[in-house]
Amino acid sequence: MAEQAQAAEQQQPNMTELMADLMAEARGTTCLKPYEISAELRPKIDALALWDNVAELRDHGYTVVHDVAPPEMFDELREAIHRLAQESEGDLKGLAASMLLGRHPVVDAVATLPKILAVAEASVGQGMRASQFVASIKREGGAGLDVHADQNWLPAPFPAHNCVITFCMPCEGMTDAGGATRIVPGSQALRRPPTPEELEHAKTIPVEVEKGAVAVWDGSVWHGAGPRTIPGTRTVLHATYQRLYTQPIDDYTYLLQDETYVQNASKELLGLLGADLFYGTATATSGGVDMVKFLKSAILAKK
Ligand SMILES: [Fe+2]
Questions:
Q1: Which of 101, 30, 17 is nearest to 271 (CA)?
Q2: 221: which of 8, 45, 61, 297 fits an S-S bond (Cβ 3.0–4.6 Å)?
């Protein structure tokens, strides 16, 4: 791609100021280390008091972010999940709902909450993509989940820069007896999935969160979930974000073809859908990719 950038520069003596600025910025941008915070993100982490969360993610592979949204927003999210789960077919009808971005305004609003975006960017970088937005409803007697690492479709050792971050948003809060996520703290440092034996004997701890808070973990940390042994429901939105160069799980690119949706979407949401990136921008007659988007992507990828 550097050759294409150079060629574009040579072929366009009247190159726009924007291209010239982007090229200069791309040349001068060095890559941040894992969990190093960019100058752009620093004031947000300060203002939202998220430094402890960033440190916990880096050192333990998970954290709990408090006061992400008012309780009423989680009530609305719960209602939306239960309604959308009725639209699922087969065994998971009433128990799960998938492809949730663009299907209810509250899901899109939750996806771009300031604390969520700031923590996600600290972990998977600028230009991150919305990956999977899926919900689950666990009732009394609901089973637990085996220990695994979320980015287990990447070859190990996993990249030093985390590629996948998952926000577990329990609409009612989450307790051990209620079927909470269970984590092996520090296991992210191994940067590989557990072996079958490790999976069997993993020493996990429950991650309990109050309503309005979310549990967050990186793509390398080993985690599962406990069974639910009490009445009621655990209604969770699992919102996953990925580093820009990795392929998202859900394909939301169809939303970018919907003019009304795009007109009403925030720039943060459009960014999560990949609108700012250069992937897929070449056409049969364009002679190459969108160079402005390519240069922007090259800059975002380093931060
Ligand atoms: Fe998981």
A1: 101
A2: 61
